[in-house]
Amino acid sequence: MNENTSRPVKVALALGSNVGDRMAALRTAVAALKPYVNVTALSPVYETAPAYVTDQPSFLNAALIGETNLAPMVLLRAVKNLESELGRLPTFHYGPRAIDIDILFYGDEIVSVPELVVPHPRLGEREFVLRPLADIAGDWRHPQKGLTISEMLASQPDNSPRFHETL
User: What's the rounded Cα separation, in Å, for the pair 6 and 69?
Assistant: First the structure.
């Protein structure tokens, strides 16, 4: 497997936290990503109700755009290692977490292996991801759906995530 790409690839990542000092966790994650992703845009941070499993604290969510020279699986390993280093503990599916980092887009590539599906398979149903991503990449077009991030967001019910602050 090739560890690096021949040229930088534009990526979009989602960040979330609902345990401990949530804002500090997001800021620490952005800083810790620097060896792997050259961050070019950061969204505002939104406070959102938990999805799927609702009996847990609210989340702070943000998104970032950047460039990486890492191949998709190498980037995934780096992100998962960072989550562990930053205090993410094993829990149940959709459970509380100190930090969550998801790869939303890897250029316009489609990746589908057991460990990684990109574009993120639930991106279109997650206002808590679409709203911050639309702030920094509203015109990014989903390579399978053909819709922009802004168009996908417009099709969501308004769950009214509250602006929290900037990273």
Answer: 7
139 is annotated as an active-site residue = no
* Marked catalytic residue, from 21, 22, 55, 102: 102
Active-site residue, from 7, 27, 77, 97: 97
pLDDT for the residue numbered 93: 66
Sign of CA dihedral 90, 51, 29, 150: positive
Give yes or no: 158 in active site.
Answer: no
Measured from the Cβ of residue 159, the count of other Cβ atoms closer than 10 Å reads: 12
The structural domains of the chain, with segments of one domain joined by +, span 4-166
Indicate yes or no: pTM above 0.85: yes
| pLDDT for the residue numbered 47 | 92
22, 88, 126, 131: which one is catalytic? 88
**Domain 4-166 architecture:** 2-Layer Sandwich (3.30)
Q: How confident is the model at residue 82 (pLDDT cuts 50, 70, 90)?
A: very high
Q: Active-site residue 135, yes or no?
A: no
Mean model confidence pLDDT for the chain? 89
Catalytic, out of 22, 27, 100, 126: 100
Report residue 74 as tokens. 């190498």
